[in-house]
Design brief:
about 240 residues; alpha/beta; Rossmann fold; SIR2/SIRT2 'Small Domain'; 3-stranded antiparallel sheet; 9 helices; 11 strands; binds nicotinamide-adenine-dinucleotide
């Protein structure tokens, strides 16, 4: 383990173009449950039964209630040391991009700016008919409407069965192709296209580093794979690298 950390430090010290992919695990130490871990149930529903266009068509009030619940949960949480180290990385490399699958907005609250929110953001909503996208927190109305056209609003989230914005995918792929170090942090690497990005980087010659308490389907493709919590491992790497 120490060896793996030392190797990650050596790799990062000479890096110029860096990509970071994060998943729900990076927010676990902020007390936000991951999808596939324990605590993934809400009432009697699983996330996979609520985060779909079909669920919203069937019962928009139930889906909004769940998103309102998640907004409240996240508002009671704070970014952790992993978010803080990732934010610092922006200024330490010539070129940097954070690609997050998280929708909790904690990277943004930690100050990250060079960032793609691949799966949307819990605190944004969009019109189900027009193009309006707005910052949004659920209030008293259980079925919020678009102020411009009166149509129903929906969470600005990429649901199961939907694809991320093609422009965001293109930017993420381009950065994965050109980076010389790719960090994969706190993702089960089960959701595409995100899970494929580190493999693109690897194919193009980048060094790929994973931080996760558990192994994942892409662990064997990594140059360095560190078993541990992001909020502990990242600060240790950062201190040892002396940035
Ligand atoms: P996931 O739930 O499938 O996997 C989480 C991963 O994090 C696991 O591999 C787990 O071993 C690891 N992990 C747990 N604790 C960790 C820690 N302290 N440090 C580092 N790693 C840790 O999540 P995913 O891969 O992001 O994919 C699921 C989808 O769920 C994504 O599309 C994401 O948008 C969504 N999601 C987001 C949030 C959020 O915004 N916080 C929460 C749940 C789900």
């Amino acid at each position: 383990m120490v060896d793996e950390i030392t190797r990650a430090v050596e790799i990062l010290k000479t890096a110029k173009t860096v990509a970071v992919l994060t998943g729900a695990g990076v927010s676990a130490e902020s007390n936000i449950p991951t999808f596939r871990g324990e605590g993934g149930l809400w009432k009697k529903y699983r996330a996979e039964e609520l985060a779909t266009p079909e669920a919203f068509n069937r019962n928009p009030e139930l889906v909004w209630e769940w998103y309102g619940y998640r907004q409240k949960l996240v508002l009671g949480c704070r970014p952790n040391p992993a978010h803080e180290v990732i934010e610092k990385m922006e200024d330490c490399f010539d070129d940097f991009l954070l690609i997050t699958q998280n929708v909790d907005g904690l990277h943004r609250r930690a100050g990250s700016k060079k960032m793609l929110e691949l799966h949307g953001n819990l605190f944004k909503s969009r019109c189900t008919v027009g193009r309006t996208i707005l910052d949004f927190t659920l209030g008293d109305d259980p079925l919020p409407k678009c102020e411009s056209c009166g149509a129903l609003l929906r969470p600005h989230i990429v649901w199961f069965g939907e694809s991320p914005d093609p422009m965001k995918i293109q930017l993420a792929v381009e950065h994965s192709e050109k980076c010389d170090v790719f960090l994969v942090i706190g993702t089960s690497a089960m959701v595409q296209p995100a899970a494929y990005l580190p493999l693109i980087a690897k194919k193009m010659g980048a060094k790929v580093i994973e931080i996760n308490p558990k192994s994942t389907p892409i662990t064997n493709d990594m140059d360095v794979s560190i078993r541990g919590k992001a909020g502990e491992i990242l600060p240790e790497i950062w201190t040892k690298a002396g940035f």
